[in-house]
Structure formats: structure tokens, C-alpha cells
Amino acid sequence: MTETEKMLAGKIYDPSDKSLATARARAHALSRKYNETDETEEEKRAAILDELVPCRGEGSYFQGPVYFDYGIYLKTGAHFYANFNLTVLDCCPVTIGNDVMIGPNCALVTPVHPLRYQDRNMRLKPDGTPFDYEYAKPITIGDNCWLASNVTVCGGVQIGNGCVIGAGSVVTRDVPDNSFAAGNPCRVIRPITEADAIELKRQLF
Fold first, then answer.
1. pLDDT in tens, 35-91
2. What residue spans of 76-184 are helical by DSSP H?
3. What count of other Cβ atoms lies within 10 Å of the Cβ of residue 102?
4. Which of 54, 122, 187, 193 has the most crowded Cβ, counting Cβ within 10 A?
5. Euclidean distance between CA atoms 109 and 1, whole angstroms
6. H-helix or E-strand containing 8?
7. How far apart (Å, rounded) are the C-alpha atoms in residues 152 and 141?
8. Residue 135, helix vs strand vs coil
């Protein structure tokens, strides 16, 4: 297997691999290029995203600034919206459904580093190139979700359809459909039900 295939399969891989390093550099350059654009430059932004995040659904919008490790391993559904400072470390696939809203300063992080420093620390190849061992776990976010500001979703997590993740949460485990979850570590607070309908809320004010 190539190092890219190992990475995407969730196996231990060498991130210093030339093809991976080249792909990351490309994504970082495209991210900077996107971040230098004005939101009124719609055609220019779309052209950059066609290279950076080609697997995005119709009507997807990235406010910017954005930060991607690869970009090409993120897939969004239709009407995806990301506010300021979205960070996506897509060393494993990140799959997002339709009508998902992501607040400012959110991060979707698939990489995992070994717990033991003996395994985690940098080392040298025979030619002197530094490298470390990593692996990654995929992230899946279902349809009709809202991640509020400053949410971090860790690798291996699946967030079900219709969920709301409260501000500042660190999501380390799966969240079932139609749940309001919050906290660090994030936990399910309660289900989202018809009692949360906006029409009922209006009657209270």
C-alpha cells in the first residue's frame, strides 16, 4: 500500500511521504489563496474551491478564512455553510450531509497521535529526513446538523442527522440522531423534539 492508501484506511503511515507532503503543501497554498479573496469575488472563490474542495454539494459556502490539510478528502452535501476559521484536517475522509451549518472557529480533526512519547516523537530516516508515525479516523456528520461556535470534532466520531452541538464542545464519541449535545467531553443533553418548534418559542415572548 502507498502511504496515502494507508492514511485513508486508518493505518499507521508516514506523513513525511513525498506525495503526501506535496498534497498538503498544495492544499495549504490554496487555502491561503482563498483566504486572500474578498467574499464578493464569487467566481474566483469558486475556482479555488474547485481545486481545494472538489467534492462539495450545490450551494456550499465557506466564509473564510479556511484551513485544510488536503481538502480533497472532505465531502459536503448541498447547502453546507461554514463560518469563519473552519479547520479541516482530512487525513481520513470527512463526510458531511445536506443542510449542515458550522459556526465560527470549528475544527474537524481526523489525525491521531500515539499516546506513548516513545512512539510519538519525531525520528530520522537514514537520509536525515525527520518523520513521525500517525494514523487517522474518519468523521461523519449527518443531514440537518448545526455545530455552534468553537466546536472540535475528533476522529472516529459520527454525528447523526438533525443534531445540534453546543458552543465550545469537544466531540469525542458518537451522537445519535436528533440530539442536543454539549460539553467537554461532549455528551447528549436531551433529544430535540416538536416541543422545540420555533412557533412554540414565539408564544413565550
1. 999 999 999 999 999 999 999 999 999 999 999 999 999 999 999 999 999 999 999
2. 117-120
3. 27
4. 187
5. 23
6. helix 3-8
7. 12
8. strand
Bridge partners of residue 95, in order along the sequence:
75, 140
pLDDT (0 to 100) of residue 202: 59
List the one residue out of 27, 31, 29, 2 whose CA is nearest residue 17.
2
Q: Mapping DSSP to helix (H, G, I), strand (E, B) and coil, where does residue 67 land?
A: strand
**Residue 13 pLDDT exceeds 90:** yes
For 120, the grid coordinates are: 510519538
Residue 41 grid coordinates: 469575488
Whole-Å CA distances, 42 to 50, 175, 184, 188, 204: 12, 35, 37, 38, 41
Our answer to whether residue 28 is catalytic in this structure is no
Q: Which of 113, 123, 125, 173 is catalytic?
A: 113
Q: DSSP class of residue 143?
A: S
pLDDT in tens, 89-147: 999 999 999 999 999 999 999 999 999 999 999 999 999 889 999 999 999 999 999 99
pLDDT the model gives residue 197: 86
